[in-house]
Design a protein that fits this description.
about 180 residues; alpha+beta; 5-stranded antiparallel beta sheet; 5 helices
């Protein structure tokens, strides 16, 4: 089992995980809020969890060509479980898939997938950030990206369904004091 702890809250982890997966040639196909199933349970307390279905097509293809039964495990899943002071990210080791299917000769391909999943989980947890560079990748401190901007209170370009702009209603469209 791959397990990484982060101090990020559960509601912060989705964006981090999506960005990390995309940077490493994959993507998040689906997000399931499994913690909702526990809300009715009076013994569950403040337990909450999300599962992310992640896909790395370039690595999955080689595993499926080796043995089509890997389809039972792919695409993989990463669980984000809220716990006291943060969140745990957990995933089943792809090497374990090989053991379950009695295919030890495929473990090197599964190890490549496991490494990719671990890097994505570490990056999403804030342990490292991968930035593409001319000579490869380098690890740098975490920085804000365009996807982290909250546009909730921003003024829209168009203010109605007819395509009217604020500037069109504000005046004549010409500078009101000639000269300079």
């Amino acid at each position: 089992m791959l397990e990484i702890h982060t101090t990020q809250r559960l509601d912060q982890i989705e964006l981090s995980l999506r960005l990390a997966a995309e940077r490493h040639g994959g993507g998040v196909l689906a997000v399931s809020h499994v913690g909702q199933l526990l809300k009715e349970d009076k013994y569950a307390g403040d337990v909450d969890a999300l599962t992310f279905t992640v896909c790395f097509p370039d690595l999955y293809a080689s595993l499926l060509h080796a043995d089509v039964r890997f389809a039972a495990f792919l695409p993989g899943r990463i669980a984000a479980c809220a716990w006291k002071d943060g969140t745990f990210l957990e995933a089943i080791s792809p090497k374990e898939y090989c053991r379950m299917l009695h295919r030890p000769e495929v473990e090197p391909m599964a190890a490549t997938l496991e490494d990719r999943i671990r890097v994505v989980m570490e990056e999403a947890a804030g342990r490292r950030v991968f930035v593409a560079a001319a000579g490869g990748g380098v690890t740098v401190e975490h920085r804000a990206t365009e996807d982290m901007i909250n546009m909730r209170a921003a003024l829209p370009q168009r203010i109605d369904c007819l395509g009217t702009k604020v500037e069109e209603l504000a005046g004549t469209g010409e500078h009101d004091s000639p000269g300079g």
